[in-house]
Structures are given as C-alpha cells and as structure tokens.
Design brief:
Layout: E1 16-21, H1 24-29, H2 31-39, H3 50-60, E2 71-73, E3 75-80, E4 85-89, E5 91-98, E6 101-108, E7 126-127, H4 132-144, E8 153-160, E9 175-183, E10 187-189, H5 194-198, H6 203-218, E11 223-228, H7 231-249, H8 264-279, E12 283-290, E13 293-303, E14 306-314, H9 323-337, E15 342-344, H10 351-356, E16 363-371, H11 374-396
Parallel strand pairs: 6-8, 14-15
Antiparallel strand pairs: 1-3, 2-5, 3-4, 4-7, 5-6, 8-16, 9-16, 10-15, 11-12, 12-13, 13-14
Helix pairs in contact: 3-8, 7-8
C-alpha cells in the first residue's frame, strides 16, 4: 500500500509502506528505532514507549497462560521507501468465542477489551511529529484495504491536536464506522514559583492546603512525606502502593474509586513496568507516613517534559486527613523546584483535576469499525440470533439477562 507523505514537510517525495510485526523477537529488535521515533513524537507518552509495549505484551499478550482467547501481535510499522521508520500502531488480533461463534477483533496495546483493565491511560500510538495524518492514513488504508478480510471489529484511539480520524475517508459500503472524540490528557501548566501558582487556586483549595497539614499537627500525628526514586526504593515500596490502592477501593466514604489491579497479571505487569522505568529514572513513588505507618502512596511517571500522575492509594483509616491531597501539593512544590512546568493528570475531565487547575489542549479520537463483508455479517447475524434465543429461553424460565 502506497501513500504520499504529504504532511512530512522535509520528505514530500517519499512513499509510505506498512510492515506488520507479528513476533516478539522482532519487537525486541525494534528498540532503538522505536525509541528514536518516540523522541521525535509530539506527545512523548510513556504509555507509547518501547518499554511499555514490551512489558504490556509480555503480561497481556499471547505468552500469557490464561483461559481467555489467544492474542496475536499485529504491530503496524510505517516506513518510507528509504526504510526510515515514521510511526508505529501497536495492535493485536484476538479471536473471541461469543454465542457459539468466533469473532475476529483488532485492538490496541493497552486496550484489554472485554477482559478488563489494561492499565494504560493514554493511547499507545507513536508517530514522528508532523507525520501524524500521513502515518495514520497509511495504516488505516492497510487495515481497510488489503487486510479488511482479516477482522470483523476494530477499535483505534489516538491523542492529537488535530481531528484526522473524524475526517477519515472510509467506505461505508464495506465497513460501518463510528467516530468519537473526548478530551485528552488534563495538563497543569505551572509557573516558576509556588506562591504564584497558589494564587490561581480557588479559596477552598487554598484553605485546604493549610487545613489538612494543620489537622494532622493538631492531632499530634508524626507525619512526613518522602520520595522513592532509586530502583531499590521503588522495588521496596511497590507492595505498599498495591496494598493501599486496593484498600482505597474498599473505602465506603467519599467518591468511589475502583481498583486497577484486578488480578495477579495486573500486579506483575505493574511491578515489571515500574522496575523498567525506575532503571531509567522515570518513576517516583510519593510516600506518606503517619506515626510510623505508611498511609498513602502515589506513582508519578516522568514523561518528556512532564510529570504524570499515575495510580495512588491510601488507608481508609486516614481518609479524614486527605493524604493523597497532601502528596499532590508536595509533588507540585517539588516539580517547581526541579524546573518542571507541566503536570499530566491523564485523560478524563473530573472535578478534582479541575480544582488543581488542569485543562486539556488535545483530544482523544476514537474510531470503531465493524466489517460489513458477507462472512463478517454472517457471524454477526448468527451471534445476534443465538443471543435472542438465549434471552427468550431465559425469560421463559423467569431469568432476566
């Protein structure tokens, strides 16, 4: 499949080719090229890094002995005619048995589909800056063209400042396509000093910055925050992060928080990626202690020129003292002292992120496609009929599905 590289200004005469990577060894060999493209990408998201892709596949891909459907690697590497890598779309194929019929799906790394939590908060696509539209177009021409008979369902998410996926010219006769757009990662842009930033906050936020530490002091609690950065420190405090994250999910007070660590593979994946990032000095665990007990922990990732606010946890016994709020304020002070000017609160616009002053300048564009080819339609019709019959039998037996 050929496409003129119209949006890469210095390479207007080049053509783009899509090569599909299906083997773990080929992915491992791609480390240097992948990392170079990542350095030249606009977002520089750690979730789109080579380390994240490898670790995610090792724990959620075809090498995982589970009772679920088999997954096959389908990473789309987009090259120029001179064999220079311009972008990577990390995908996998999965055959699911539903209602007695197989369905062939294509999903992104980080999207665990109906199996649960993928632990990847930003889209995993990585493309050289300025080449986003051309690379995505080449990849989608490949999937909707030569490879259109290899899937029944596909889902793709990209975070960009543009709306290419909304304008994608896809034939409605061969595929049914739905496009959705949501706000991208919520970014807090920091001034150079704490007092200037503090004055931008609401009165209630400014009051809380003083209230919770004073409340601890009035209760004569011996408390402190500290930061685990060395690989051995990250390893030692990691069990506390997991324990407190799950403990937070059990708290019956305040806003409900689910758990991202739903099983052993989620914990082992997180341990592995924390180890990889700690070796590169790209992760810090914020720890809060009270009376010698660790009562809160939060993971902060260092991605490009920003600090990313990742998973957290706290002891429900200390809910009234808002320990994660205290860790957040300490993080901002620390970031300013280190010359960091961006805090990434990740996607999803929520009130607590707004209270810190985070806003979004990017969008996450999602494309969901269903194949309308005869074989795919036959499988869809079979599953629909099977479910209708099951629902009718269940209602006859007094069971509501």
């Amino acid at each position: 499949m050929l496409l003129t590289l119209a949006n890469c200004q210095s390479h207007l005469d080049q053509k783009l080719f899509v090569h599909e990577i299906t083997d773990l060894q080929d992915l491992l060999a791609l480390k240097d090229d992948w990392s170079q493209v990542w350095k030249e990408s606009t977002q520089q998201s750690l979730f789109a890094s080579w380390d994240w892709a490898v670790s995610w596949w090792l724990h959620f891909g075809d090498s995982v002995p589970t009772s679920g459907p088999l997954r096959t690697m389908r990473i789309l590497a987009v090259y120029s005619g001179s064999h220079q890598l311009y972008g990577l779309i990390p995908l996998y194929g999965v055959d699911r048995l539903s209602a007695g019929c197989w369905s062939r799906e294509i999903r992104q790394f980080g999207d665990d589909g109906r199996d649960g939590e993928g632990m990847t908060e930003e889209p995993t696509v990585v493309i050289r800056h300025g080449c986003e539209d051309a690379v995505l177009y080449a990849a989608l021409q490949y999937l909707f063209g030569d490879q259109s008979s290899s899937w029944d369902f596909m889902k793709l998410r990209v975070q960009t400042e543009r709306t290419f996926l909304e304008q994608l010219p896809v034939s409605s006769k061969r595929h049914k396509v739905k496009r959705r757009t949501a706000e991208g990662s919520q970014i807090l842009s920091l001034p150079s000093d704490w007092e200037t930033y503090r004055r931008t906050l609401s009165r209630s936020m400014r009051d809380n910055l003083k209230y919770y530490p004073r409340k601890l002091d009035r209760a004569q609690v011996r408390w402190r925050t500290h930061w685990a950065e060395r690989p051995d420190e990250v390893r030692d405090y990691f069990p506390d992060l997991v324990r407190l994250h799950n403990h937070r999910a059990l708290n019956q007070r305040g806003m409900y928080h689910g758990t991202h660590m739903r099983g052993d593979r989620h914990v082992t994946f997180l341990r592995d990626i924390m180890r990889r990032l700690a070796d590169q000095q790209k992760v810090t665990l914020g720890i809060m202690e009270a009376n010698g007990e660790i009562i809160a922990a939060q993971a902060f990732l260092h991605s490009g020129d920003a600090v990313v606010v990742y998973y957290s946890g706290y002891s429900a016994d200390w809910y009234d003292y808002s320990p994660v709020f205290i860790l957040g304020s300490e993080l901002i002070r620390r970031a300013q002292a280190q010359g960091i000017r961006k805090i990434n609160f990740l996607p999803d616009q929520t009130p607590w992120k707004e209270r810190w002053g985070a806003t979004s300048s990017t969008a996450i564009h999602e494309l969901v496609a269903i194949s309308m080819q005869p074989a795919s339609l036959a499988r869809i019709a079979y599953r629909s009929a099977h479910r209708t019959i099951e629902r009718g039998l269940s209602l006859q037996n007094g069971v509501r599905l």
